[in-house]
Amino acid sequence: MSTKNQEYKDEILVTRVGAQCLLVKDNKILLGKRKNVFGDGHWGLPGGHLEKGETILEAAARELEEETGVKAISSQVISVSDANLENNYHLQIGVLVTKWDGDPQIKEPNKCSELSFFALEELPEPIFISAKPLIEKFIKNALY
């Protein structure tokens, strides 16, 4: 292994895999304003990290329901994004929820201050760092 590759490997302390849900209705996407967590004040997609033994779709459905009360009925993986932030490698999987039941509500008020659908051409600022590339790929239809 080259020295450069070894140095990079040594810098990576944790690898995290996240599933982020894209709920789109009438050309609007659901975003929540993060509160008391990394990215406080930024707008992000519902989602979170995989738990041991979960598939991407299971994690996405669980996180969506925990955060918004919405139950995913059908969904599909549509994109992948990664970033090396603060010595942690993050792999984010974008999951398009194509059918769901329920109306989004804030279910974790300690982590989310606002929840709303936004027109894809009029997104609020700032967008959470790990959600931004997934949303951009969706808008450009540059999936996977």
From TrEMBL:
Keyword Magnesium assigned: no
Molecular function via GO: hydrolase activity
PROSITE patterns, sorted: NUDIX, NUDIX_BOX
Domain Nudix hydrolase: 14-141
Originating organism: candidate division CPR2 bacterium GW2011_GWC1_41_48
InterPro entries with a match to the protein in the record: Nudix_hydrolase, NUDIX_hydrolase-like_dom_sf, NUDIX_hydrolase_CS, NUDIX_hydrolase_dom
Similarity comment text for this entry: Belongs to the Nudix hydrolase family.
Keyword Hydrolase: yes
Signal peptide: none
Protein name, per record: Nudix hydrolase domain-containing protein
Pfam assignment, any one: NUDIX
Keyword vocabulary terms for this entry: Hydrolase
